[in-house]
Amino acid sequence: MTPPRVRGWCPGALRPMMSGDGLVMRLRPRLARFTRAQVLGICEAAARHAAGLIDLTSRANLQVRGVGEADWPKLLELFGGLDLLDADVRLESRRNLLVAPDWISGDDTERIATGLLARLGELPELPAKVGFAIDAGPAPRLQGDSADFRIERGVDGGLILRADGRAAGVVLEPGEEIGALIAIARWFIDSGGKAAGRMARHAAPLPDWARGATLPARAAEPLRCGGYALGAIHALPFGQVSADELAEAMLRSGAHAMRITPWRQVLLEGAEPQHASRLASGSLDVEKAAAAGWRVEACAGAPFCPQASAETRPLAFHLLDLAARGRLQAGQGGAPAGGSGVCTLHVSGCAKGCAHPDAATVCLTGRDGVFDLAYDARPGETPCAAGLAVDAVLARLGAD
User: Fold this and answer.
1) The CATH number of 17-86+229-280 is which of 2.60.40.10, 3.90.480.10, 3.90.1150.10, 3.90.180.10?
2) What b/e readout covers 101-127, taking b as 16+ CB neighbours within 10 angstroms?
3) pLDDT digit string (tens) for 236-254?
4) pTM of the predicted model, to two decimals?
């Protein structure tokens, strides 16, 4: 099997990435939020100048897929008019910021995220995938999501700065947070972090001022689909929705903004309660699967990604349906999963594992048009069964 090509950077709008169906333009929201006008503008642009599909990424960004090279300048003009672009590629790449989506006006999350956005120019040149999480609500929401440096609530009720890979963080006084983030980013580069690429892989000891013993507070309960204090929460199966469907939902619900989460969910801010049902086809299956203890992840797969050798989404939808109907099995040899918690099933088109880089309860890796099956594994790890066609996968994982 030919190893997948790891590019080492993420696409942007100013620096798109070529995929199997054309250019991918990634739009990074400020404060995890797009206004109504911005969402409708993105949808119109995607329908007119791209493939009409919008992806929600695990870093809480939106991607417009299938952009032709001749259409890219047109989209830049449209997105610039909607105030969605940064001044240059350098600033765009630094705005790698994950924000807890349930912030409210005037709270610590909004204050810190807004302050950091205003001081992005003070950050050093960081590796492309290094990012920050601003998670300063009453309880952390982003502990399971990718970030190298976090501002989050500590067990004592104050805010802490915690480096990825460290169990505890250092307590910060109000007003110190942004300066501390900039300082630890500079330390990361000065101490050789660029070679490591990510904080969790960086072996250098933290500077004295950044060492702390305060644990983060217990994580908040996951956001559930349906009515919410700020509007309505909707699941997007595998993070994809058609531009037309998303635009219709914004108009039908009366939402005045859309907040993006890293969990394949969107929060339609200000949506009327009667429109708190499903947004996209299949989202009810996502909720039923979650109730049954399953989380199903899938990347774009072939033909959308040139690295993928197998189609992922059709198989993933079949498996999601099995999970929703209580017919999906987990565990070596098909035995039911033991213990408690959520089981993860990951369908990856290649060994990169873009949709879910961590180990999954059940992992399917595309190879030469078929799939290798492994348990409690990451994509590309040694399988227990290799070369399975879709029917064989379904027969092996589906309960009678």
Assistant:
1) 3.90.480.10
2) bbbeeeebbbbbbeebbeebeebeebb
3) 888 889 999 999 999 989 9
4) 0.85
